[in-house]
Amino acid sequence: MRRFIKAIVIGGLLSPLGLATQGCADNDTMLFVRAVQRLSPGECVAKGDPNATMLLGGVLDTHFRSEYRAALLVGNQLVRRGSKNLLRTESNRVVLKGVEVTIYNDVEEQIGDSFSEPGVGFVDVGTGEDPGYGVISATLIPPNFPVAPNNLYLIEVRAFGETLGGAEITSAALRFPIYTCEGCLISYPLEAADPAQLPTYVCLGEEAPEDEPPCRIGQDDYVDCRLCAATDPLCQTP
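Structure (tokenized):
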């Protein structure tokens, strides 16, 4: 009888360990980075909404900036544990603490060392079969990275954090391409041309455009030449 009880006790101690090990192995399915959100000019706010506009790739204009920052939409597929009837709090909400980034070139060769960056975010549990979503800001290309124009960089990014129950968790990786260029995001509207200089196009910088400026000049969205013509020769003439 004592041997039987001892076997039960040992089995009871090993079972949670096996579940914990299995849980660590399944982290890639529990937390995931769904996409990079597009920030709408004028609003420039990222939301934990899977229906928000997403980017299939990024553009970095090295004429204006050397770093690429992104708003990552992160999903939580952990099962809801909280219960009001049982007076049990929800332990599977996730506090995001940062991201891990690896940069590759267009032939899948890693460039430099992987790096991590602290961040702030929160992901609730889902409802039914739908995951919960949250957002975290991440630097996908750091300012000190030797970025060159007319290249393709493949960014692999993971979000990491901790559940309210104290379990560390890391997401599955998102692979995100970023194209670089030199001056490709400058737009030269016809109405911005100085009529006295035609047929040579010279951008008039005296009048501001009606459209809202991009959230990050030199990243993803075109910048009207009138926003920079006063100080930038490349904005004055294509």
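The chain has two domains: 28-181, 185-238. Residues 1-26 have pLDDT under 50 and may be disordered.
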